[in-house]
Each structure stands twice: as structure tokens, then as C-alpha cells.
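Changelog note: in this version the structure field was regenerated for every chain. One regenerated record is shown below for reference.
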Amino acid sequence: MIRFAALIGASAIALGACAPTGGQVVSIPEEAIVAFDGKTEEEIMTRVAPAAFIASFEKVCEANVDNLAGALALLKSDGYILLADSGDVTAYAHPDGKPVFGFGGRNPRKPEVCMVMSRNSANLRSVTEAYANKLPNVLEVPIAGLAPGAEKAWLPGDGAETLYLTVNRTDPSLGEIFAFAIGKI
């Protein structure tokens, strides 16, 4: 029997880390219900080691920032399953507990933001900040308080119209959910 409450909880957590979903209808596909049968929220939204978190971000989000549809295709070819969809934000999870990914934007067919998400650990924040601060001529952009959970944002000074962002949301059952995002501005 599926722990449907856990699936709903993990879906809401993932979408909530991407963007506020207040008032939006969230759908959970049948494929996700089957794939995550019997799993807890903790098994769907796992803790990820900092090195794996950054490697996942680089491989899926950063390498495909100019083609986020390609990032989605990469995830699907790796066995990721659509976990939840709120219309403008989608979340993908892997049955083996790999990092969860979120995509968002004004047009669901053409996502503008990609993020990797994990239950927080003490090192995730410092690793992402160190990563962002290594960008060429990076400029930290004040963002705290402008969006729910948004903590820090950086613009690389290389002329690319790219924004890096960290988001931290708290969930009653899982604690802190940390996300590292990239998008075109």
C-alpha cells in the first residue's frame, strides 16, 4: 500500500521549494504513485552529500541552462519521474533517492529555472556559497525577503544573463529543504 500522504507531502515540499503554490492545484501523476509506492517522504526527498549535490547541479542544471528542456530529457533518461506538477512548476524525483529537481517558469513547456533540492545538511549552504563565489567577477545580489525562502543570489560578471540562487524552506516533517537554482534573467 502506498504511503499516499508521504507522496503528497514530498510533492508539496518539492514544489514549495521551487515557488509558492498557494491556491494552485497540484497534480501527482499515476506513474509517481506507482514508482514511490511504500516510500516515506524521507526516502523521496533524501539528504544528499554536498559533493553529489553540486555534481547533480552542474550536470543537470548548469550544463543545460540554455536548454532546460534538454535537462528534463536528461533526467527522464536517467530514470527520474515527474513527482508533481502545479502548472508552472514541476518536480522530478528518482526511485533510488537521488536529488530531487524542480523546474519553473511562466511557460511550462519552456522552463526558465532549474534547481536541485535536498533535505538540508550543515554543509550544503557553505558548499553552494563557495561554488557561486568562484564564478568570474561574481556579484552578490541582495534578495533576502524578496521571495519566500530565497536566501542568496549571485550574478556572474562574465556577461551571461544567468542568476544563481539559494532557497531554504522549512517543512514540518522533513525540516529544512535546501535548493540551489540557476536561471536566465
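Spot check on this record: DSSP finds six helices and eight strands in the chain. Helices lie at 4-18, 30-35, 41-44, 50-61, 68-77, 122-133.
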